[in-house]
Amino acid sequence: MNNPQLDTDGHLRHLLSIEGLPKKILNQILDTAESFAGVAEREVKKVPLLRGKTVCNLFFENSTRTRTTFEIAAKRLSADVISLNVGTSSQSKGETILDTVDNLIAMHADMFVVRHAQSGAAHLIAKHVPPHIHVINAGDGRHSHPTQGLLDVFTIRKYKPDLHNLRIAIVGDVLHSRVARSEIHALTTLGVPEVRVIAPKTLLPAQVEKLGVHVFHDMKSGLKDVDVVMMLRLQNERMNGAMLPSSQEYFKTYGLTQEKLALAKPDAIVMHPGPMNRGVEIDSSVADGKQSVILPQVTYGIAIRMAVMAILAGGQSANPMPAGGGTQ
Ligand code: CP
Fold it and tell me: Which residue from 291, 316, 17, 294 is spatially nearest to 150, judged by alpha carbons?
């Protein structure tokens, strides 16, 4: 089937979802990000790969981590960055999303980073733009958040390099989570042998096992001997009506405490894409504890987003910067 993310030579043209992306492309992004992670250690944290290009951040839904790290990543690649303030843009006067995009293209935008509450918004823009423009999905509805999935895998590789020997549990509101979908597709494509989901039935999509995951409804059996615990936020804004008795009740059963974490392997890492709801899905002692890699996830997001933008802009290989060269 024709993949709108790839050009006719199989190179990445847009990044819209992990689903359908070949393992080779996922590894290209992860390996390129390894090279970019070192840029943060330099005195001048910049490389000239996107010099002369304009990146437009279009965030129609709130964000702290994704928006900021995309902006930092684009600046580290020396791009000009426009972050449209949607609240004060002409959207409020009835302008359509595609008219907004056309106007930004008329201002010579080269790349759009799009977050939207509606699933499919980034696909819509990708179908609309001319061939030289690239679109990155920064989270659409409950559908996909590909750079989050990639930065999560990148983080796991840093702490647990042998992906082929891992047991990973994703815990919580899988039903409404674009992050969980992206993580599951990334982990299964890259050969992680056991991906588990742990949640009440009401928070799991129908036939979730068809995604290649093992389903658990209780933490005791689900967390047993896992290497990685990925917690998810309860996405209350996407729930129609009450799907749970109460957040206190949820915490008692599915909230990650030190006691429940002890069921995992002793060296298990704890992840969360953010934003966290302390005392709902995770206890503060775990979120801030020694097994938590929640803040490193955020840091690695910069390298992943640099890699994606560099690859889109220039067909970047996994070694974008020879040692000692390429800075400005
Ligand atoms: N993980 C994530 O997407 O966070 P933000 O909503 O803050 O971007």
Answer: 17
In the predicted model, what is the mean pLDDT of residues 282-302?
98
Question: Could you give the 3-state DSSP secondary structure of residue 87?
Answer: helix
Alpha-carbon gap, residue 77 to 74, rounded angstroms: 5
Ligand 1 site-directed mutation target among 63, 142, 300, most atoms within 8 Å of CB = 63
> Phi and psi at residue 268, in whole multiples of 5°?
-65, 145
pLDDT tens digits, one per residue of 162-173 = 999 999 999 999
95 Rama sector, left if φ>0, alpha if ψ -120 to 50, beta otherwise? beta
Residue-range domain boundaries for the chain: 23-144+299-325, 146-297
Residue 317 has pLDDT above 60, yes or no: no
What is the spatial order of strands in the sheet that 111-116 belongs to? 80-84, 54-59, 111-116, 134-140
Which CATH code of 3.40.50.10860, 1.10.150.530, 3.40.50.1370, 3.90.1150.10 fits the domain covering 23-144+299-325?
3.40.50.1370
Q: Is 155 in the pocket of ligand 1 (CB under 6 A)?
A: no
Per-residue pLDDT band at 73 (split at 50, 70, 90): very high
User: From CA 259, how far away is CA 39, in angstroms rounded?
Assistant: 39
Q: Is the CB of 301 under 6 A from ligand 1?
A: no
The answer to whether 23-144+299-325 and 146-297 have equal CATH topology is yes
Complete edge-to-edge strand list for the sheet that includes strand 167-171 = 214-216, 194-198, 167-171, 228-231, 269-271
**DSSP code at position 201:** G
> Was domain 146-297 assigned CATH 3.40.50.1370?
yes
Angle at 222 between CA 275 and CA 288, to 5 degrees: 35
Q: What pLDDT score was predicted for residue 242?
A: 63
- Please tell me the distance between residue 90's alpha carbon and the centre of ligand 1 in angstroms: 24
Query: How much is the pTM?
Result: 0.93
